[in-house]
Amino acid sequence: MNWVSKGCVCLVGLLGLIDLYLALIWSPPEAQMGDLVRIMYFHVASAWIALISFCVAFGAAVGYLLTRRQRCDMVLVAAIEIGLVYTALTLVTGALWAKPVWNAWWTWDPRLTTTLILWFLFIGCVLLRASMEDGRRRAVVTAVYTVVAFLDVPLIHLSVRLWRSIHPDLVNDTGFHMPGSMAFTLMFGFVVFFLVYVLLLYLRVRLEWTRRTLARMRGQAGVRETLVGEAYRTAPSTPMDGRR
Amino acid sequence: MSHQLGYLWAVTLLVWGGTCLYVMSLWRRQRQVERALREWQLEQASVQKCDESASFTAADD
Amino acid sequence: MIGSGWRVFGLLLINDIRLECRRPHLLATGLLFGALMMFITAIAVDGAGDLSDSMTAGLLWLNIFFTTAIGFLRQDRRDEEYGAATGIRFIPQDLSVIYYARWCSTLIFILCAVTVLTGMFFLLFNRAGPVRPLWFAASLGLGTLGLSGMGTFVSLLTAGSTLRDVLLPMLLFPVSLPLFLGVDRLTASALSGAPVPWSWAGVLIGYLLMVSVLPWLLYETLMEV
């Protein structure tokens, strides 16, 4: 690990500690939920980051289909994987928040259901990618599937919303429905989570880039060896043979 | 109240612990790939050296 | 050019039907598997005739979804066996025509299976016929249309995967969730005679539009690799 990523991790860690202080100590408890409302700062920030990550994945997928650049494919893979991590965190924190508040680990709320479907959609995408050998096909299939899945999400959300809804609407078109100190903590947490996301994206893309460098070099060496082997087989009167 | 706070700290630990675990997994994978890359480069360098010495021997013959 | 596109579409469709008639694997497996699934489901719910309409509609669609997912695997294997999957890429047309022809042929086969499955459903669950038979038929037809469209597309996506048998239903079910919810509600209302849920009909039409337009944009890209 180089000093840049070490420095970034330290900086983000420091901001994370400030976020912890704001979320767990500084912000006030809520009238009905009490201290349990503090889970919101992690739950909502994780959900937003997951959504941003899948938006980035969609952008990268479209970019790959239009330009066929490897860079887009690397960002696509990274964004899907990180999006899955944050979706999982959203689901787990959501269940942990729901239990004491709604007295159930899981409810068939549209946002919960959509988030779980989103997780299933993209875990399938990761499995699909991992189970393919051909690199170019793998990249195209991942990009196409990401586009289809992403465009399907609004329809999924609409249909699940028609089905049933009990989720609290803390943030909607009319603004934040909470005191200023809570809104500040929420937004600060979001910024910290976003910085963590950028760092994770950088680390994951770097890993993918190194992996591909290794694969490319191995591939080139393989081709070189094959060509040399072919040359020996197809040219029997080389100087070496003459000497033999 | 204290029960709620304990629960909160557990949730917090889960979120940040989960993120830290993911970062560590990325580092671990990065180190593995970099090691494989270095080993492969060394291997290639030694193969090249062998080739060169073989061609020198052939030229001497 | 458009005329020749229709010609290619017709030829591909007739070819699919002819192949299926020669060796009716897809139909046979679809029918048998569907009937078995329906039988097992009826046993699992204790042959209940007292289930609510929404529950029975859900069970019917669950069986249709599983039967369909099995059918897609079978149809693609046939193409691989005959080597047609490679040859078909060279047609002098927009390659999305293959998707529409495949969608149409799959729809015909699945509709046959769905008809038998629905018959078994009424028989085994001891149910009276739907209060609105036309709506019931329309919801079955539209649901099968959407499912066969998305299934055809997903089956091409998973074509090069080593985990194909598992991944096809795994990808198909989450992607077709709006369709599932929509047809489930429409079928339930047709069974009970409750007012038609127009919002669900809207969701269904939106889904069908997506299934019709997206592959037209993306199918050729997929066939290139």
Summarize the structure.
The complex is a heterotrimer of chains A (244), B (61) and C (225). Chain A has 244 residues and is mainly alpha-helical.
Characterization of this structure:
The complex is a heterotrimer of chains A (244), B (61) and C (225). With 244 residues, chain A is mainly alpha-helical. Helices cover 80% and strands 2% of the residues of chain A. Chain A has one domain: Four Helix Bundle (Hemerythrin (Met), subunit A) (Up-down Bundle). Chain A has a two-stranded antiparallel ribbon. In chain A, helix 2 runs antiparallel to helix 3, helix 3 runs antiparallel to helix 4 and helix 4 packs antiparallel against helix 5. Chain B is mostly helical and 61 residues long. The longest helix of chain B is centred in the middle third of the chain and has 59 residues. Chain B starts with a helix and ends with a helix. The mean pLDDT of chain B is 81. By secondary structure, chain C is mainly alpha-helical. Chain C is globular and about 55 Å long. The interface between A and C is medium-sized, with 31 and 30 residues.
Q: How many separate helices of chain B?
A: 1
- Element pattern of chain C in H and E: HHHHHHHHH
Beta-strand residue percentage of chain B: under 5%
Give the helix/strand class of chain C: mainly alpha
- The total strand number of chain C stands at 0
Biggest sheet of chain B, open or closed, and with what strands and sense? none
Shape of chain B: rod-shaped
Radius of gyration of chain C: 18 Å
Q: Give the overall shape of chain C, derived from the CA principal axes.
A: globular
Count of discrete domains of chain C = 1
Q: Count the strands of chain B?
A: 0
- Overall mean pLDDT score of chain B? 81
Question: Helicity range of the residues of chain B?
Answer: over 70%
What's the oligomerization state?
heterotrimer
Give helix and strand order of chain B, one letter per element, not per position. H
What percent strand of chain C?
Answer: under 5%
**Largest interface: chains, residues each:** A-B, 38 and 29 residues
Cα separation of the termini of chain B: 89 Å
Average pLDDT level of chain C: 84
Q: Which range best describes the helical content of chain C: under 10%, 10-25%, 25-40%, 40-55%, 55-70% or over 70%?
A: over 70%
